[in-house]
Amino acid sequence: xxxxxxxxxxxxIGVSEALDALLRHAGDLTPAMxxxxxxxxxxxxxxxxxxxxxxxxxxxxxxxxxxxxxRIEHPAAGILEETGMMRRRTYHADPDSVTFxxxxxxxxxxxxxxxxxxxxxxxxxxxxxxxxxxxxxxxVDFLGGA
Length: 146
Fold this sequence. Notes:
- By secondary structure, this protein is mainly alpha-helical.
- Helix content is 46%, strand content 8%.
- The protein has a three-stranded antiparallel sheet with strand order 1-3-2, covered by helices on one side.
- Helix 2 packs antiparallel against helix 5.
């Protein structure tokens, strides 16, 4: 996957051991990982509509020159929107993980910014405050059916 992705590592030994036990008990977690990926698609899309980062902070506004150009070329487009390609997110679910991110090289520039080119960070990837609880709920629901 080109572009930007999100990696969340579990550094807490107790949580890591619990996840290992979960894998031993449940085996293939691909359906649960796919459900997590679908959740991330929904929240990422909602943030895109609101033009905010995962903490709810608004994206940096466009420069006046960009606003003027977009008025002519793409009058209805919001920040980071012209063709719709930047908005696309994808995920890949495996038995023990889900990879989520953008599929374009430009995604990394907008996620992290590029000070040398004067491009501010406008992050879209990442967990919101309630996402860890939702992920835990998805895993618990999956185990209940396993």
